[in-house]
Amino acid sequence: MLDARIPDGPLEDKWSHYKAHAKLVNPANRKKLEVIVVGTGLAGSSIAASLGEMGYSVKSFCFQDTPRRAHSVAAQGGVNACKNYKNDGDSVFRMFYDTIKGGDFRAREGNVYRMAECSANLIDQAVAQGVPFGREYGGYLNNRSFGGVQVSRTFYARGQTGQQLLLGAYQALMRQVGAGTVQLFARHEMQDLVVIDGKARGIIVRNMDTGELERHGAHAVVLATGGFGKIYYLSTLAMGCNGSAIWRAHKRGAYMANPSWTQIHPTSLPQSGEYQSKLTLMSESLRNDGRIWVPKQKEETREPNQIPEEERDYYLERRYPAFGNLSPRDIASRAAKERIDAGFGIGPLKNAVYLDFSKAIKDQGEDKIRKKYGNLFRMYEKITGVNAYQEPMRISPAAHFSMGGLWVDYELMTTIPGLFALGEANFADHGANRLGANSLLQASVDGYFIAPYTMANYLADEIKTGPIDIRHGAFAAAEENVQQFLKRLMGIQGNLGADYFHKELGKILYDKCGLSRSKEGLEAAIREINELRESFWQRLYVPGGYALNSELEKAGRVADYLELGALMCYDALMRDESCGAHFRVEHQTPEGEAMRNDEDFSFISAWEWAGVEKEPQLHKEPLHFEFVTPSVRSYK
Amino acid sequence: MGQWKQQTLSRKNWMAFTGLFLCLYLVIHLLGNLQLFLPEERAHRQFNLYSHILSGNIIIKIISYILFASIIGHVVYAIIITLTNTRARKVKYHYDRRGAVSKWYSRNMGLLGTVIFIFLVIHLRDFWYVYKFGNLPLDAQGHKDLYILVISVYSELWYVLLYVVCMVALCYHLLHGFFSAARTLGLYHPRYAKGVRIFGWVFSIVICTGFAAMPVYVHFLK
Amino acid sequence: MRIRLKVWRQENQQDPGKMMTYVLGDINPHMSFLEMLDTLNEQLLQEGSRPVEFDHDCREGICGQCGIMINGRAHGPLKNTTTCQLHMRSFKDNEEIVIEPFRATAFPVKCDLKVDRTAFDRVIASGGFISVNTGQAPEANSIPISSPDVEAAFDAAACIGCGACVAVCKNSSAALFTSAKISHMVLLPQGEIEAQTRVRSMVDQMDAEGFGHCSNTEACEAECPQQISVLHIARMNYEYNKAQVLKK
C-alpha cells in the first residue's frame, strides 16, 4: 500500500500546515545544493527559475534547441484560477470540486485542493512577468468559460495562452541563466537516471548535436518532461514529445500511476491521409460559440450549408442539455466517436463532426467572432484551405493529454527519494479526466509554488552529503547501459524506420486502448504490442551515425513507447470499470454513459517495472474522500 | 569605453542625422536654384548675385563644412554598416528570392548611394571646383558668371540625361531614406509614421523633379 | 504530384556542404511541407542513405522550431506562414523546389537544414524579462492596463523566435526579434521600470552575436509568421535613443 503522505487536518489547512512545518535550507547553503531539472516547459522552466532565484545551483536540460519551444507553448485556450473576478460564485472549494468531479473522483482531495488554492497566485505571478492576459476596457482582467464548469474562471491571452505563460517562465529562466544560477543544456536528452543508495543522484544525457554522453550529478532530480500522448503517433503533441525520461526513471524504480488514462481531445482536425504526422488541435474555447453536429442522415453527401436545420443532429445539446457543447472533454469525445462509429461521420474519411459558428456569427456578428478566435480561424484556413466563417469546421477527437504519469506523493516526489516529477509528467491532480485550462495551471503551480517548498524539505537533509561524485560506479554503469542500448539500436540494421513501428503502435492503441476499451481488445493489444516490439528489435533500421541523428533519437523513444504501450494496456485491463477518459465497454449505462465502480476501483494504480516480457507489478494507493462524496458524474 | 562604443543602432542614428541634414540642404539648394527658371535677363543677374553672396558668407561657409562632413560621414558610416552586414552572412543563399517581399530600392541603398556619390563628384567638379578655382568670366555686376557656365554645361544632351538619371537614383534613395531615417530615430506611432512616409514620398518626388527639371529646362528652352 | 527537390546537405558544422537533387513521385497536395520531407526521408531510409535533418516540433505554427528557406523565401512562398503550415497545394506539379537552411553568421548550420539559433536565447538572457522573483507578485488586478495597450503588447509578445526575420533580412539583422521583446515589455507598466537597462543590454547582446543592421526594408514583417510589425523596431530605436540621452 502506497502512502501519499498527505497532511492531516481540514482540507483548507493541509497546504499551509505543510508549508509552516516543512524543513528549510539556509540561503548560505543553497549554492552547495545541486538540482537537475529535465524539461523546460511550464513546470520545468518555473521550478528551475524559482530554485535559481532562491540560490540553488541548477542545471536545466531540454531536447529542443531552446527552452522556449517546449510543448506548453502550444496550449491555446487558457488557464484556470479561482479569482472570482466575475462575481459568479467561484471559490477555491468550487474549483476543487469541479476538478475532482471532472476527474470522475479518481484524484486525491489534498492535491486537487492545493492546486485550486495556488491558482490565484499564478495569475498574479504571470501578470507581474508581463503575460498579456486579455482585459476588459476598464483595464481589469477578463475571463471566459470553459468545458465542465459553470463559472467563468479561465484567463486567456487570445488563443496563445500557453505560449505567453511559457514565455513568462522562459524569460524568468533565461534571467537566471544570465545571472549564472542556472546552467542551460539545450539539445541534451536524458538517457538514464543514476540512483545511488536508493536516492536519485544524477542523470546521463546525450548531447544531441555531438552524440556524446555526459554525466551530471545532483542532490535532487526533477523530471518535468510532459506527457506521452505522442505514443498514439497521431496526436496533438509535438513530434519530439516523448515518454523516455519518465520511462527510464520507471525502469530505475519509480512507479508509473494510471498510465492508461489518456485524454482524447474532442476538437482537433481530422486525419486526412496515411502520410499525416500530427493532428492539429483547435482550442476547446471554440466550443463556447461553436455548435457541434452531424447530419441526421447516414451517408450524407450534401455540403454542410445545404443541410437544413431540422436535419442536423446537435448531439451534445441533445444528450447533455445542461452543459451542451461545453460538456467535458471525455464526454464530448466519446459522443463524437459514438456518432462516427454509428456511421454519421462527415468528411472524405467519414471521421469527423461539424463545429458550426453560423449561429454565433448571426447573433454576435463576424467581427466579434474574429476578435475572439481570429487566429484559430486563420490557422484552420491555413491547414485546410477552408474559410470557417462561411462553412463549419470539421473536427475529430485526438490523443492529447496523459493524466497518468510517474506516481508522486503529496510532495511531488516519486518512489525514488530525490526524484521529483512535475506537471504532466506526474499523474496527480486530474484524476481520470482533465478539465480544460487545468494543465497550464497544474504545470505552473507545481513549478512555482509547490515544488520549491517540498524540494527544500528534501534538500534540507542533503546539506551534509557534499558534492556528488560523477566518477561513482553507478554513473559508469548507467553510462555503459546507455551506450549498450544505443549500440543495440544501431546494430540491428533491418529495413524499417522507427516511424513505422511508431505508427503501428499508435494504431493498436487508438483501436484498443483509446476512447473505448474492452477486455478482449486489451488482451489482444498486449499480444500485438509484444509482437511489434520483437519485430522492432529485429527489423529496425537506424541510418546515420552516433552524432546528430534524428532517426537514432526517434528509435530510442519508440523503443520506450513499445514497453510503455504494453503497460498502458495492462493498466486499462486491470481497471475493470469505466471512469472519466477510461471507458470500458463492459461498464456503461443503457444510455452509454460511463459506470464507475467505487467499491473496487477507488484507488490509484501504481505499477512497478518487472522487466521486459514480464507482467508489471501493481501497487494500490486507496483514495479517501473525506470532504466530498463521489457521485455519478452527470452533465445532463 | 562603453560611452563611445558604437552599436548598430548608434551607427544608424548617424546615418539618419547626416541623411536628414543632407535632405534639408537639398531643399535650400533647390530653392536657390529655382532662380534659373526666371526670365533669361533676370535669371542671369540674380543667379550670379546669389552665388556671390553664398560664397562670401561665413555662416554659409560653416554650413558648407558641415555639409561636407555630413557627406563624408554618411558615406563612411554606409561603408562600415555594409561591411558589418556582409560579415553577418558569410555564406550566401544558393537560390535567393527574398526580394519578393521588399522594395528593390530599399535593398539597394548602397548602390543608389554610389551613383549619387559619383554624380556629386562630377557635379562638384563642374560647378563648385570651376567656380572656386577656375577662371570664370565676370558678369556686368562684376560677379563670377556662374550662369553662363550652367548654360554651357547643360547644352550637352548626354549630360542632361546623366543628370536626370542621377536624379531618379536620388529620388529612390530618398524614397526609402527619408522614412527610414525617421524610423531609425524612433518614430513608432502608427499614424505619424504613416504621415512621415507620405510626406517622404512627396518630398522625394518634388525635390528630384525640381532638380531634374533644371538641366532639361536649360537645355531645351534656353 | 511529382516534384524535384534540391536540398542542402551538410554533414556537420565543418563540412562545406552541397546541394543534392531528389525526385519524389507521389505527393499528395494536402500534405504539409514537412510531411513531404518525411516522405523524402522515408524514401532515403529505404535506400539506406542518411535522411535529411531538419528542424521541426509542434507542426502547428507556434513552437518556432521549423524554419527553412524554400525557393529562396523564408518559410516558403506564402507570407506570414511557418514552414509547418505550408502545404503542398502551394506548389505546382513537376515543380523544382530548392530547400536551404536559414543563413546568418549568428545562426551556424549544424547539419543539413538544422541551424543553431541559441543567439536568440542569449539576447533574451541579457535583459528580455521583467525582474520578478516567484512570490513577489502583487494582486493581478492591482495593475490595471488598458485593453488596447495589452493587445499591443500581445502583438509584440506573439513572436515565436523562429528566426525568419533574420533569414530574410539582407543584413541578417535581428532587429525585429529584439524589438518585439523590448516593445512587449515597455508597453506594460510592469516592464517600464527596467526599460533603459533592458534596451541597452539587449542591443549590446544583439550586436555581440554578430547580427547586422536594420535598414528598414520591412521584409521581416512580410515573412514573420506572427505578423509582428516593423514599428516595434522604431519603438526599440526610440527606447534606445531615450536611454542613451538619459544615461547618467
In short:
Chain B has 222 residues and is mainly alpha-helical. Chain B has helices at residues 8-33, 40-56, 58-87, 104-107, 109-133, 146-153, 157-184, 190-221. Chain B has one domain: Fumarate reductase/succinate dehydrogenase, transmembrane subunit (3 helical TM bundles of succinate and fumarate reductases, Up-down Bundle).
Strand fraction of chain C: 5-15%
Distance between the termini of chain C: 64 Å
> How widely separated are the two ends of chain A?
37 Å
How many DSSP E strands of chain C? Answer: 7
Quote the beta fraction of chain A.
5-15%
Q: What is the helical fraction of chain C, as a range of percent?
A: 25-40%
> What is the gyration radius of chain A calculated from CA atoms?
24 Å
Superfamily at the CATH H level of the largest domain in chain C?
Alpha-helical ferredoxin
Q: What is the largest interface, and how many residues per chain? A: A-C, 79 and 78 residues
What is the CATH architecture descriptor of the domain at 473-622 in chain A?
Up-down Bundle
- Average predicted local confidence, pLDDT of chain A: 95
Rounded mean pLDDT score of chain C? 96
- Numbering strands along the chain, what is their spatial order in the largest sheet of chain C? 2-1-5-3-4
Unreliable parts of chain A: none
- Categorize the overall geometry of chain A: globular
Q: Specify Rg of chain C, calculated over alpha carbons.
A: 20 Å
Protein name (chain B): Succinate dehydrogenase / fumarate reductase cytochrome b subunit
Transmembrane segments (chain B): 14-38, 58-83, 104-124, 157-175, 196-218
Organism (chain B): Chitinophaga arvensicola
Keywords (chain B): Membrane, Transmembrane, Transmembrane helix
